[in-house]
Amino acid sequence: MTTDTKNTLLPQAVERRNPGMALDLDWVRRVQANTSAIERRARTLPGRRTVKKDVQAAWLCKAVSCIDLTTLAGDDTAGRVHRLCAKARQPVRADLLDALGLDGLTVGAVCVYHDMIAPAVAALAGSGIPVAAVSTGFPAGLSPFHLRVQEIEESVKAGAREIDIVISRRHVLTGNWEALYDEMRTFRAACGEAHVKAILATGELGTLRNVARAALVCMMAGADFVKTSTGKESVNATLPVSLVMIRAVRDYFSQTGVRIGYKPAGGISKAKDALTYLMLIKEELGNTWLSPHLFRFGASSLLGDIERQLEHHVTGRYSAAYRHAMG
Ligand SMILES: O=C[C@H](O)COP(=O)(O)O
């Protein structure tokens, strides 16, 4: 992979949405997941394919451009969100960026709870960085349905350009694909022009087959992205789950010609893990998906480790982690 020709990784205009399609239950029921084969393939990924030096630095910058820089804590304040947004605008120190030959670099989005949209929108004004809001009774998604829909509408009105919804896990666990489809369809309609990411909460779906089927149904109902986790489940993003979801994205593309984005989220905090995910995307989906339009990391602390690695690449030294702290 090379860096973009103009040496900038700044936000670009948004491309085509997923229009969705009618629910195709035959297709959903045909979907299987060979757990042992998937786990075997996942075990081959970390550390096997390494990229070195300049290429690695370019990949790490690409990873930064794909981060949904996230704060989803009960004690979030406008001050914390302002600091996070300052980091989103300039995720890597200017001297490091210079040494890496990049003119511009931002993260993909800033992801917050509904109440923090206004300070985030204000702090990101003019940057082109979208605000993503978690809505629909995040993280459990168990508030009354009409309130979940209303929350989306309020978040869009407050300026969120991306909405991360949580699905009702029980629809998956009971195989009620019609209910999941209708729910997702309603959420997507409430989003209007805002892009919608469907959080599957894969750690609570029981089986990889359920993960594959849930991803497919959400795509049929118009999800622009499928996302693994809220970050609040006991098991969040994993490589086997990612393989299953990425292959669902690939199948959906081959059947419909529509590209859906993928967002692993929760527990991704190391630069080397980010590289593994980028390799996985490249190998399974191809270079087109290595773009913030089609790939995001949901992460609160990944950026700090990537910046440390980039600093090491440029200066040959590591500084203490607190020098790259946020919040
Ligand atoms: O969607 C993003 C996650 O909530 C972030 O999870 P993390 O704090 O484990 O990086």
From TrEMBL:
Coiled coil: none annotated. Its EC number is 4.1.2.4. It is an enzyme of class 4 (lyase). The keyword Signal does not apply. GO terms for cellular component: cytoplasm. This is Deoxyribose-phosphate aldolase. Pfam families: DeoC (PF01791). The keyword Coiled coil does not apply. Pathway: Carbohydrate degradation; 2-deoxy-D-ribose 1-phosphate degradation; D-glyceraldehyde 3-phosphate and acetaldehyde from 2-deoxy-alpha-D-ribose 1-phosphate: step 2/2. One of its GO terms (molecular function) is deoxyribose-phosphate aldolase activity. The lineage of its organism: Bacteria, Pseudomonadati, Pseudomonadota, Alphaproteobacteria, Rhodobacterales. It catalyses: 2-deoxy-D-ribose 5-phosphate = D-glyceraldehyde 3-phosphate + acetaldehyde.
